[in-house]
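note to self: dont lose this again. the chain is below, predicted strucutre after it. 339 aa total, dont forget to put it in the shared folder this time
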Amino acid sequence: MTAGTGRPDPEGYRQARTSVAYETHALRGLITIEGPDAIGFLHGILTNDIAGLADGRVSYAAWLTPQGRMQTDIHVLRGPAGAWLDLEPAYAPDLAKRLDLSLFNEQLTLTDRTSGTHAITVHGPAALETAARAIEHQGTDASPVRALVPFTHTSVAVGANPVAAYTASWLGVGGVRLLSDAGTVTGLVAALAGQGVSRLSSDAVDALRIESGTPLFGVDMTTDTIPLEAGIESRAISMTKGCYVGQEVIVRILHRGHGRVVRRLVGLIIESGDPPAAGTAIYAASQVVGSVTSAAWSPALGRSIALGYVHRDSAEAGTDVRIGSADGAEAHVQHLPLV
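---
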């Protein structure tokens, strides 16, 4: 995903909300970890319950520093021999190196497949059926894709090339991601275009993502972010599993601090003007209380919207703030999702 700066194409946005549209990824971060100790190794370092994840299921998780700050977020695809880790491509090489340095005597094989992995994400209520038709266009049986349910994955072969498919809803409208090599993905894109499916612009992706309140690592979450600040704990953190890297900090905040963090990611509905740039200051009572992380024009709301971090004293829904200066555009804090 990338962050856009303008207004979304109305047709692609409408199709994603009502039927189907697709997004392309020139490269996609993919690391495979396979072997008898693969799952136990991941369970010990990631925030979610990987050991309890059944074959064919998908889990969202994070890898933290001992200080509780994020190194990255990841979708973990559990398979019979281990797991595939799908993440933003810019962070995959560093993650692979850090994972390798974390190994002791584990029996596993770790491979960074990012350089050869491309992807499409098909979004919308008709995402599964549309993705299946694109695969069938390549002469492949797509029934495993049609059988997917939320947070599961499967694989099919397009010719000699494997395609991994998994479901999740980053944009709040339903979706399926297809991971394969560049040539296979190019063929799938052509098949989608042949069905009349619209390609989403980055601005349309951002509008849907911000409306749904989904933070993006590298944009709304960084290596300074504690997951509780970003509000992803219900999806990314198991509250019942054993130890993981950074757990002590998370438990201390939740149980001793009653979940209180200094800042929180919130949604902002801006009364007038274009979407503000990332980093724009947020003011309350003439004081800087935070900053915007990403913004877009919302066709659903007919105004600019944003995600941003604000001090906890300004994080309640309904709080009036100003964007850019003490007398800048009026905005209102709203709990996520915005739409």
